[in-house]
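Predict the 3D structure for this chain.
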Amino acid sequence: QVQLVESGGGLVQPGGSLRLSCAASGFTSDYYAIGWFRQAPGKEREGVSCMLRSDGSTFYVDSVKGRFTMSREKDKNTVFLQLSSLQPEDTGNYYCAAVSPPVPGYTTAQYMCVMLLYDHLGQGTQVTVSS
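Done. Predicted structure below.
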């Protein structure tokens, strides 16, 4: 059974930093892509950063470029999202998602940063940015 377990959320002041972790397990074959999605109250879930397993290529949504960094451990089963220079608009529930078989035609991390393409979702970790 696939499990994605997020941790690292919390309350932080504007300008602060957090590091989110996602531990992936239970895949019968390697996942194809893994990503971080967030949902703010009253808003749709959006792709924040996504990574292809094969080459580690990473996509960031414009609003977080230069502030967030996605990385992974050597075994590729734990990924991180370093959140820096946090702003109140970054507040939301951050989810880790993964998809196991390759998605035909979706060959870049940017193409893969769409929630509908993912078939496994973690429980989420709350990030609140407030003074």
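The CA atoms of residues 106 and 112 lie 6 Å apart.
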